[in-house]
Protein backbone atom coordinates (compact mmCIF):
# COMPACT_ATOMS: atom_id res chain seq x y z
CA UNK A 1 0.00 0.00 0.00
CA UNK A 2 1.12 3.54 -0.63
CA UNK A 3 0.86 6.62 1.56
CA UNK A 4 -2.07 8.01 -0.37
CA UNK A 5 -5.63 7.77 0.94
CA UNK A 6 -7.43 4.76 -0.45
CA UNK A 7 -11.11 4.32 -1.11
CA UNK A 8 -12.95 1.49 0.58
CA UNK A 9 -13.22 -0.33 -2.75
CA UNK A 10 -9.45 -0.11 -3.20
CA UNK A 11 -8.79 -1.34 0.31
CA UNK A 12 -11.23 -4.24 0.03
CA UNK A 13 -9.67 -5.35 -3.24
CA UNK A 14 -6.08 -5.20 -2.01
CA UNK A 15 -4.60 -8.72 -2.05
CA UNK A 16 -2.98 -8.37 1.38
CA UNK A 17 -6.20 -7.08 2.95
CA UNK A 18 -8.12 -9.93 1.34
CA UNK A 19 -5.68 -12.48 2.76
CA UNK A 20 -6.01 -11.08 6.27
CA UNK A 21 -9.79 -10.94 5.96
CA UNK A 22 -9.86 -14.54 4.72
CA UNK A 23 -7.71 -15.64 7.65
CA UNK A 24 -10.06 -13.84 10.03
CA UNK A 25 -13.14 -15.18 8.22
CA UNK A 26 -14.38 -11.69 7.42
CA UNK A 27 -16.17 -10.94 4.16
CA UNK A 28 -16.04 -7.55 2.41
CA UNK A 29 -19.81 -7.12 2.71
CA UNK A 30 -19.48 -7.49 6.49
CA UNK A 31 -16.95 -4.67 6.57
CA UNK A 32 -19.20 -2.47 4.41
CA UNK A 33 -22.19 -3.16 6.70
CA UNK A 34 -20.16 -2.38 9.81
CA UNK A 35 -18.95 0.91 8.37
CA UNK A 36 -22.44 1.85 7.18
CA UNK A 37 -23.84 1.22 10.66
CA UNK A 38 -21.07 3.29 12.23
CA UNK A 39 -21.83 6.16 9.85
CA UNK A 40 -25.50 6.35 10.85
CA UNK A 41 -26.35 8.45 13.89
CA UNK A 42 -27.42 6.46 16.92
CA UNK A 43 -31.13 6.77 17.63
CA UNK A 44 -31.30 5.12 21.03
CA UNK A 45 -28.79 7.31 22.82
CA UNK A 46 -29.35 7.81 26.53
CA UNK A 47 -28.28 11.28 27.66
CA UNK A 48 -25.61 11.58 30.35
CA UNK A 49 -26.77 11.43 33.97
CA UNK A 50 -26.11 15.14 34.63
CA UNK A 51 -28.41 16.10 31.73
CA UNK A 52 -31.19 13.83 33.01
CA UNK A 53 -30.74 15.13 36.58
CA UNK A 54 -30.90 18.76 35.46
CA UNK A 55 -34.06 18.10 33.44
CA UNK A 56 -35.70 16.27 36.35
CA UNK A 57 -34.78 19.01 38.81
CA UNK A 58 -36.36 21.63 36.58
CA UNK A 59 -39.57 19.58 36.39
CA UNK A 60 -39.64 18.93 40.13
CA UNK A 61 -39.08 22.58 40.96
CA UNK A 62 -41.69 23.71 38.45
CA UNK A 63 -39.37 25.86 36.36
What is the structure about, briefly put?
62% of the residues lie in helices and 0% in strands. With 63 residues, it is an all-alpha fold.
Characterise this structure:
It contains four helices and no strands. The model has no long low-confidence stretch (mean pLDDT 82). The protein is elongated. 62% of the residues lie in helices and 0% in strands. 0% of the residues are buried. With 63 residues, it is mostly helical. The protein has one domain (8-60).
Features:
single chain; 63 residues; mainly alpha; 4 helices; elongated
List the helices and strands and how they pair.
Blueprint: H1 8-13, H2 15-23, H3 28-39, H4 49-60
What can be said about the biggest beta sheet?
Answer: none
Please tell me how large the radius of gyration is.
22 Å
Indicate the multimeric state.
Answer: single chain
Strand content: under 5%
Can you tell me the number of structural domains? 1
Counted by DSSP, the helix tally is 4
Ranges where pLDDT stays below 50 over 5 or more residues in a row are none
Mean pLDDT: 82
* Relative helix content: 55-70%
Total beta strands? 0
